[in-house]
User: Which sequence fits this backbone?
């Protein structure tokens, strides 16, 4: 067996184990649901999310173990199609990113998972555009919870994995993300779907953003492809 075959088989074995663990967790969650123990099923569902995310991370690198030089590029294209990140500018000139999922909890999430789809999305967006740089700005995280699930509790802002997102956004649109140059603001709201909205706003315009945010539509504010 060649080195590539051995590496691929070893990774495939790891995937199989993760898949079995995910199936066991799924079956447990389903049994709780069918038994009417919905509060326990709720916690089990988070365990399932954790297992599936681990499985996704592992399967994402699986093609590369074949030794095919196109594996990384093909995987990246699949991610861009599967997780459609919206990037652009508001009418007011604020930079915005909309991620179609809520960011994971720090204790459960994976920064590498976030980087794997956000970094290539940002790189692709700026390939054919003039670079832009905000100084003395506010980095805003707006966590949107689907109104179809009103029973769900909002998470504490300090328990959400934001560092990976902040690092990538800062890399592309900020002169400096130090504490003296960049402030952070966090808020949560209800919308038509789960998502995370990120904005970069000049510090002098934060009050304007706060006023505008009150009338943001449930589907999210429109982002323009080019700076207005």
Assistant:
């Amino acid at each position: 067996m060649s080195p590539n075959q051995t590496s691929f088989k070893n990774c495939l074995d790891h995937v199989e184990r993760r898949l079995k663990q995910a199936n066991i967790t799924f079956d447990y969650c389903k049994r709780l649901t069918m038994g009417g123990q919905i509060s326990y099923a709720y916690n089990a569902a988070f365990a399932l999310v954790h297992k599936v995310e681990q499985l996704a991370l592992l399967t994402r690198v699986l093609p590369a173990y074949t030794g095919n030089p196109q594996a990384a590029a093909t995987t990246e294209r699949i991610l861009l199609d599967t997780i459609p990140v919206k990037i652009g500018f508001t009418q007011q000139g604020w930079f915005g990113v909309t991620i179609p999922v809520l960011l994971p909890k720090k204790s459960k999430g994976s920064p590498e998972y976030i980087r794997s789809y956000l970094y290539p999305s940002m790189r692709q967006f700026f390939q054919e555009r003039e670079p832009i740089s905000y100084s003395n700005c506010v980095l805003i995280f707006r966590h949107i919870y689907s109104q179809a699930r009103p029973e769900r509790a909002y998470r504490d802002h300090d328990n959400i994995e934001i560092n990976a997102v902040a690092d990538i956004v800062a890399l592309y649109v900020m002169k400096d993300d130090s504490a003296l140059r960049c402030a952070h603001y966090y808020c949560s709201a209800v919308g038509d779907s789960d998502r995370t909205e990120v904005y970069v706003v000049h510090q002098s315009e934060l009050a304007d953003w706060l006023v505008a945010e009150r009338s943001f539509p449930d589907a999210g504010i429109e982002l323009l492809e080019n700076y207005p």
